[in-house]
Amino acid sequence: MIKKFCALVMVYTFLTITVIPAANAGTPVNIGYQGVLCEIATYIAVEKGFFTEEGLDVTLVKGDWNTVKDGLAAGKIAAAQGLLMNWLKPIEQGLDVKLTVGVHTGCLKIISSKASGITAVTQLKGKKVGVPSIGSAPHLLAFRATAIAGLSPEKDIQWKIFPPAELKIALEKGEVDAVAVADPIGAIIEKGVPGAVTLVDSAKTKPYVDEYCCLIGVNGKLVRENPELAAKITRAFAKSAKWISLNRAEAAAIITEKKYVPIDKEFAAQIVEHYDYQPSTNAAKSAVLYAAKELKKVDILAPSTDPEKLAKFVFADLPGLDQYKNIKRNYGKY
């Protein structure tokens, strides 16, 4: 019954490679990205020179999530930012990637239409919920939220799959009663669909408000064989996140003017304002453990998986990151 959540869907597409020349040639490194707003730390690390500062000559490799994930597994991509709930199941199943730092919170939402009359997660029983794919981070957020609300995610919800760009239309046409999405699509729906109700916003709703949605994943072989290089990559991302926390409007202007994301800078700034950019290693470890426990409760992780052992296995402690250890969050305190 739960097997459909356990299968890794391997989607093979061609990589789009964008070469970003470094000011001074350094160690060549491929960084994966999908071209979505929550990857702003990737773009700013390039544009503000944080990769170069760490002695890295970066090539950005663009693809969908499965392409980036497969590139990491094959060693063609050294590192990438990804959603926490997208990382755990593949790593449990053998993906050789280590998580190294948390970047920011927020960016996932569950939104209902006005016509549905739904104003709380408990009212989703028997309803149709649109998701970008089964096992995606938005789907797993909704899976967790409905379970916490006392529903059976498998029996009580009709999950409907739509390409991310079509979820707004599906909600407007009444093909679904609610959608689980990531920004910027979530923010676009909130702004553009009259009467839409945000049931869960991971940037604001407890217990998700303190949970890192996005963490940096580094190829496992690279971590084992060259931890210093893995640390340089991780520090560049952490520096970028810290800079964004202090310069949100400028960061939004940079990524829109450079065409990393297809939205205007004012709207990008509004969205980014809600994310908590506090790069951390220790708090990220806690996020991994909390999410693993939650996914185990709803049978996403295998019955034989010990969440604490998985969390320890997933995260890599790298040298030179002591300054990012002291952020604390309230996981499971609600």
Automatic annotation (TrEMBL):
Gene3D superfamilies documented for this protein: Periplasmic binding protein-like II
Keyword terms, alphabetized: Signal
Signal peptide start and end residues: 1-25
Keyword Transit peptide carried by entry: no
Identification of the protein by name: NitT/TauT family transport system substrate-binding protein
Species whose genome carries this gene: Seleniivibrio woodruffii
